[in-house]
Amino acid sequence: MLPPVLRHRRRSRAVPTALLAGLLVVTMGPLWAQDSASHAHESAPAMPTMAEHDGDTPMRGLLGPYAMSREASGTSWQPQATPMGGSAPWMMGDWMWMAHGSANLVVTDNAGPRGDRDTVVQTMGMLMGMRPLGPGTLGVRAMVSLDPWGVGKTGYPLLFQTGETADGRTPLVDRQHPHDLFMELAASYAQPLGESSSVFVYLGLPGEPALGPPTFMHRFSGMDNPEAPLGHHWLDATHITFGVATLGWVWKDLKVEGSAFNAREPDQIRTNIELRALDSWSGRVSYNPSERWALQVSRGVLRSPEQLEPDVDVRRTTASVIYHRQFERAQWQTTLAWGRNQKLPGHATESFLLESALVIDAVHTLFGRVERVDKDELFGEDEPLAGQVFTVDKATLGAVHDFPSTRLGRFGLGLQYSRYAIPAALKPVYGDQPDAWLAFARWRL
Ligand SMILES: [Cu+2]
Questions:
Q1: What is the domain range of residue 137?
Q2: pLDDT for 83-120, tens place per residue?
Q3: With left for phi above 0 and alpha for psi between -120 and 50, is residue 151 left, alpha or beta?
């Protein structure tokens, strides 16, 4: 439980202090890091990406002729300079395997009449394998989460969050839904086309279609923050899609791909495999002009994504830019993302996200996230404000301290604070100055 004294020190001004502090991380972080790096060597050697067992050449990606560090969730790309987490790879015959794991013990305290306190355990485990097959590369990936038990059906408190349901009858509001037991069970095959090109197919049940930036929990700039972005359902909520087939083409630093998928969001039963027709479509163009950058634009037509609004389709458009810098003693990544949902029938809503994480000496992490999201699902049909669109701003600032690595992984302690700016019409419902504290202990492999 967080000290109550922290809860009472709320300023009456709505100017989000955390927003300013967040921008400070974004702007000052790299200067500081650059400074500390320049004291040591003029030209710091690039951080090694994970090398193969027997050599120094970086591991090849699953989907194309580039370093594996470019690959993020699903078939998405991040900057190639991003460090790879997880276990050291091991070989079994022709197969090379890697494992990732993480767990967060989270205590969260959201203030105001619609706020709540809770303690949850978020978990994620991933196993990835690859082997040569014929002229190409076969990849398999399994990702599971114990969130259905550790977080529970009703998810965790997160003011202004919307999306999915806990009971199949009422939408989850001011709470973030848990992830499903099966987050990804996918296979891919990539066939080279000459030196610098490839075509690939990716099949997942569940999997992630070619839509949006890399998912928040898998991108370096977002993975330290245990909270889902308020724009999750505008940007990356399709990361657990029960049925997806993607066909893609890679040429050097360009990727063009299209997916057929089942856009229905996971239902309240978090342990099943849900089968529906692959009647939704998306297309994405990704471009990584250098090791430091990852750009994408994507568009999807989602048929009946919401269980509780089955007659509504959504046309989703997203664009994002990710920038990653390696310094001798630090890693710094920033993501800027925009998403738009056009409901058919219905209105269009948008979300904007800017987030950044700075990791120094692999021990100290400072992160921030600023969001502006149009929320149209905060009220049930019988409430007076039902159906109206409210623009909500949120700013989060957090820090993590990690302890030295052990054979069992790494442990760390983190704390973050979020502050919201809301329209006057929401103040009678949410209080004048909603904010939230969150503390966590984490483990990572
Ligand atoms: Cu999610």
A1: 13-41+58-91+122-389
A2: 998 888 999 999 999 999 999 999 999 999 999 999 99
A3: alpha
Distances (CA, A) of 399 to 37, 101, 188, 310, 414: 21, 20, 36, 40, 6
67 lies in some domain? yes
Distance between CA atoms of residues 39 and 33, nearest Å: 10
What is the rounded (10 degree) CA torsion for 158, 160, 163, 165?
60
- Residue 235 CA, ligand 1 centroid: distance in Å: 10
In a domain, residue 188? The reply is yes
Q: How many angstroms separate the alpha carbon of residue 317 from the centre of ligand 1?
A: 18
Nearest C-alpha neighbor of 335 from the set 292, 397, 289: 292
Tens-digit pLDDT profile for residues 268-283: 999 999 999 999 999 9
Q: How far is CA 122 from CA 24, 108, 215, 431, in A?
A: 29, 12, 16, 28
Contact 89, 59 (CB under 8 A): yes
Beta-bridge mates of residue 394: 371, 420
In a domain, 444, yes or no: no
Number of structural domains, the chain? 1
Phi, psi of 70 (to 5 degrees): -75, -20
The answer to whether residue 400 is domain-embedded is no
Q: Which residues pair with 315 in a beta bridge?
A: 301, 342
Task: Calculate how far, in angstroms, residue 55's C-alpha sits from the geometric centre of ligand 1.
Answer: 37
Do residues 276 and 98 lie in contact, with contact meaning Cβ atoms separated by under 8 Å?
Answer: no
CA of 48 to the centre of ligand 1 (A): 31
> What's the rounded Cα separation, in Å, for the pair 25 and 152?
33
User: Which two tokens mark 69?
Assistant: 């560090």
- Assigned token pair, 135: 């002229």
- Token output for 179: 């992830």
What is the 140 CA–ligand 1 centroid distance (Å)?
A: 21
3-state secondary structure of 72: coil
Q: What percent of the chain has pLDDT over 70?
A: 87
Residue 302: what residue type? L
